[in-house]
Amino acid sequence: MINNFDKRKKKMKSQFNQYSALKIGSLLLTAMMFSWLPSGALAQAAPETAAKTAANTAAKTGIEMHGKGHYAPSKFGKIYYETEGSGPPVFLIAGGPGSSHASFHPWFSRLAAEHTVVYLDNIGRGRSDRLPAQRSSEYTVERDAEDIEALRTALGYDRISVIGHSYGGMPALAYALKYPQHVSRLVLSDTLLNAQSWQENIDSANFTARNQFPEIWEKLMQMRARGVKSGAPEYGDLYGETELDIYWRDPDMESKLYRSDDPADGSNSNVYLSFIGDDPEWQVGGTMKGYDPSPRMKNLTVPTLVFVGRYDRVGTPKIAGEIKAALPAASSKLVVFERSGHRPWVEESDAYFKLLKDFFPTEDESATPKLSKQ
């Protein structure tokens, strides 16, 4: 299911236009639940041009530099990106699929004092190039991962840390699986694992809509009886009225998201439908159908944090537990934010960024870090 920000904006003045941002067990969150021993080779410094870019943006906040970024080439088209701060690089991969990076601002500026924060729009989203309509079947998780590699290469980094939020965790994981030699750290934040967990996400959201908004659910079922699928705009407009509670522990936190009236920040519904199919709030189709990286995850040795909000009803704690179970125990850790929904970086900001700062390297290291046995 998607996060219908465009639909809710009319009613709730939601912060940034999104037709689709993914809806996306467990341990008690404490700052002492794990420790990282100093070891592990880190991302090398970027070449001179990337270093200058980072220096020029170091004093700016994410909001100030938003929309004033650069373009990197790839075989799929130009990739738009912004850099903020200086130090070892951290790439941010946005949700959807179909959304720009806009909602990361200004929250992830908190990393910029010690890291070069790299915001990117995958091909088909934000300010990046689109694929021709006849190539829509090329919108896949694996292709999105290639955007990360193209930008890493363009900026000249040897190794990068990657944070994938919501749908963005899927290409972030796919990238680490294909290019582990270039990944220093991996964070999978309130994300999904495969086509099966995406269907669980859809079913979970529909359960909430059916039980908490029965009057709206009845109208939706009348639409379906007339042959209207959930990818239709009129279905999405109505369905969006049921969605706010599934993303937040406290729905009032929605007002803290970055507001943008720039059309470039709106989500691309064509990308979303290419991934999930023409009935995306009912059944997984599109290029996501059958997708499952889990058999390959047991050999991933990249240090990985799996984050989830206890009250996230889309990227649920159950799904987060399945992701953790598919990863090697020695190189992964599950963290549950007990007072958050889908965006713990908003609802429990201090705890979220404290964990990231403890996790990410801030200088060159000589060996691979290890998780504590805690």
Automatic annotation (TrEMBL):
Keywords: Hydrolase, Signal. The keyword Thylakoid does not apply. Residues 88-342 form the AB hydrolase-1 domain. SUPFAM superfamilies: alpha/beta-Hydrolases (SSF53474). Residues 1-43 form the signal peptide. GO terms for biological process: proteolysis. Its EC number is 3.8.1.5. It holds the Pfam family Abhydrolase_1. One of its GO terms (cellular component) is membrane. One of its GO terms (molecular function) is haloalkane dehalogenase activity. Belongs to the peptidase S33 family. This is Alpha/beta hydrolase fold.
